[in-house]
Every structure is written in structure tokens, then in C-alpha cells.
Amino acid sequence: MSTKATGETADVMSDIEKYLTTTELLDCQGRVQHTLTLMIDGRVKIRRASSTIIVEPSTGHIEPAGSIVPDHVLHAVGELAGQRVPALHHDGVALARQRHRHPS
């Protein structure tokens, strides 16, 4: 019974995703490289040909840990979520961005 419930939950989630804001990032040949979906909870799902990654835009946290997301994709995640995504280490830990001040 739990297997059936899990399958039903997955079906409901994929049905809901049809109505969520989604954008596709294309390569220079016009092929879809990444599909970004803004989830109900504010996280962004990134689908690639071989994997799915979830990003929490406010913290830059990436699941699964260790996944690498290119800067241009993180920028698109922030645009989709309406907020800036912190820079990340290769292990998915958020970095503080340093601001350079120019002498006045």
C-alpha cells in the first residue's frame, strides 16, 4: 500500500508541475540544456538530460550535495525565483560575495 501511495504522490506532483512557472535554457544550437521550474515552496528544480537538482535560491543550498550548477544557470534560477542566489563552492556551500569599494 505504501508503494501505491508514493506513486500517487509522484503523479500528483507531476500534475501540479504543469501549472508552475517553468523556463528552458537553450544552447547556441537551440537545444534545451536545462529546464527550470519554480516550485510551490520557492525552491527551483533544475532538470538536465541526466539529472535533477533542487536549489534553494535564498541560501544557495543545492540537493543533491556535490552537484555542480554553472553560474549562468544559478543566475537564471535567481531570475525565476525573483532573488539573488549566493555564489557556491563546488560542494554546494554558499559563499559570501565580496563587494569592492572604490575610493571616493
Mean pLDDT, nearest integer? Answer: 76
- Please summarize the sheet with the most strands: 5 strands, antiparallel
Per DSSP E runs of 2 or more residues, the count of β-strands stands at 7
> Unreliable stretches, pLDDT < 50, 5 or more residues?
1-6, 89-104
Helical proportion?
25-40%
Folded structure, characterized:
With 104 residues, this protein is of the alpha+beta class. The chain is built from 2 helices and 7 strands; from the N terminus they run αβββββαββ. It has helices at 2-17, 71-81; strands at 22-26, 32-38, 44-47, 52-56, 61-63, 87-88, 94-95. The termini are far apart.
Task: Summarize this entry quickly.
The protein is α+β, with helices and mostly antiparallel strands. The chain is 26% helix and 27% strand.
Summarize the SSE layout with pairings:
Elements: H1 2-17, E1 22-26, E2 32-38, E3 44-47, E4 52-56, E5 61-63, H2 71-81, E6 87-88, E7 94-95
Antiparallel strand pairs: 1-2, 2-3, 3-4, 4-5, 6-7
Give short descriptive properties of this protein.
alpha+beta, five-stranded antiparallel sheet, two-stranded antiparallel ribbon, 26% helix, globular, disordered N terminus, disordered C terminus
